[in-house]
Request: fold
Amino acid sequence: MPKTHLEIGQELDIFTITEEGGSGLPLFKPRGFILREELIKLMREINSKLGYQEVWTPHLFKLELWKISGHLRKYKDRMFILKTKDERYAVKPMNCPGHCLLYKSEVRSYRDLPIRYSEFGTVYRNEQSGELVGLLRVRAITQDDGHAFVREDQIEEEVNALIKSALEVLSIFEMKDFKIKLSTRPDQYIGSVKLWDKATKALKNCLDKNKLDYEVKEKEGAFYGPKIDIDAKDSLGRYWQCTTIQLDFNLPRRFSLTYINKEGKPEIPVMIHRALLGSLERFIGVLLEHYQGKLPFWCSPEQIRILPISEKFLDYTRKIKEKLSNFRVEIDDSNNTLEKKIFNAIKMKVPYMIILGKKEMENNTITVRDREGKQLSNITLEQFIDIIKEKAIFRK
Reply:
């Protein structure tokens, strides 16, 4: 029976959730931090290709900002609100208002657009305790968030690029079967019906022109705009919501965002909200279950474990580790038998084990075993590096 991400996370020392810290507030251990950072590194590369500039915004803003955005009226029950002596603040449940302020900080021309901001911003939502499930539903959510401010004539090109990138990113994780949904205006919304219809039609055109199969989910859009969701199928046959692309004609109006058009007159941009992996916490939970802990080499917290047969080979072991400095390598120099060392490495789902004994030291070679039991005896370190370098660079 497949293990849950809670079981795998504990076994692999990825994260913990404590009663003292609070429900829905996971703590990532060193191994979990590495996994998060590898996902962020991947998304930074994708964002760079898409033309996004990375920014940072504070974890809280004055309450007035959330009145302007409409979050206070539509989202208040899920917000953490603070009161100080002089002012009231709210911890951010979303990053978009901060990005609106960044856009508004300068005069913009039609030539400047699209303007794209990305942020690995942690947002906080007061989810009900009964809704919280490990990493899959949390209160502290780190998103691979992004917002593009575009002209209306740029919408389709921008959305098409996002859909293409989302499918490519998810396929890196061997997720190639998708369900695509178009969610329309909910009962609680901001803005005019006319703008909503315009935004929904634009997203529908993108899906139709790409000849993608999709399901229309009536009344399931965000309160500020319609959205495209991409659910990916994991190795256990379950679908998980990952990518979200939302079109927003409303927030730019609420924040009085403009650019100077060709005629020299102010015009309101369209805002595109997007997260390709979604919540990093949730995506890590999905990955742990999808791979059952056997993460790909490139994002494994520990990529290689060196197993000297005895302490006589420790000097040779250290020399080998030094030459593998570009990878995440640990040494098991315990007094355990080789069989026990191999067992422990497999238990931690380490992709490769290097076994070093008398024969390897004398021949200046290594013996490599992977976590599936396949073994390569007496190969050179250079040969092994050629194998793993490709896996690391191309994320195989």
Q: What stands out?
A: The mean pLDDT is 95. Residues 30-50 form the longest helix (21 residues).
